[in-house]
Amino acid sequence: MSRLLHNHWLSILVRIALGIIFVIAAWPKVYDPPSFAHMIWNYKILPSSWINPMAIVLPWLEMVCGLALVAGIHRRGAALLVTGMLLVFIAALLTDIVRDIPVNCGCFSVTPVQRSHEELVAEMKADTLRDLGMLLMSFQALLTRVTWRAETL
User: Fold this and answer.
1) How confident is the prediction along the chain (153 residues), in pLDDT tens digits per residue?
2) 10 Å Cβ neighbour count for 63?
3) Residue 109 burial by Cβ neighbours in a 10 Å radius (0-12, 13-18, 19+)
4) CA–CA separation, 54 vs 126, rounded Å?
């Protein structure tokens, strides 16, 4: 199993896939910060004064980290930031699930969608599982030493 987890090509594919996911997730938020600010506000976690700065900075951080992972530039730093962001995203979702505050996660779209309470909670649980999967990918990208040159066996 350890050999598979440290496989050169698997590590590159995981890093690139995670980077692409973060670039795709960042794009709508970069394009429409006011809608993303509203999504952040819906979580009812951050102080009001932090919402607008977060709506501007977070999407660009996601974009830069995603591009860095795809390009293999500052891979470990980007993977560390992605890991931190995913931990925050998971904590935010779980906090609102526990508090029974249903929200659209705002992960890949900032367009509000009308759903019932139960549908939103189910979607939040699915989003949490998806984020946990991406967290495993980020650990793999963070903890494996990968260069573009394949190592000989």
Assistant:
1) 566 666 778 889 999 999 999 999 999 999 999 999 999 999 999 999 999 999 999 999 999 999 999 999 999 999 999 999 999 999 999 999 999 999 998 888 888 888 899 999 999 999 999 999 999 999 998 888 765 554 443
2) 18
3) middle
4) 24
Side chain identity at residue 77, one-letter code: G
Helical (H) or strand (E) element with 48: helix 48-71
Domain boundaries, the chain: 2-143
This prediction's pTM: 0.88
User: How far apart are alpha carbons 97 and 101 in whole angstroms?
Assistant: 6
CA-to-CA distance for 135 and 140, rounded, in angstroms? 9
Q: Which of 91, 36, 102 is nearest to 63 (CA)?
A: 36
CB 141 within 8 A of CB 11: yes
Cβ distance 28 to 58 under 8 Å? Answer: no
Using alpha carbons, select from 109, 89, 133, 101 the residue that is nearest to residue 35: 109
Question: What whole-number distance in Å separates Cα of residue 21 and Cα of residue 15?
Answer: 10
> What's the CA gap between 79 and 135, in Å, rounded?
10
Distance CA 93, CA 95 (A): 5
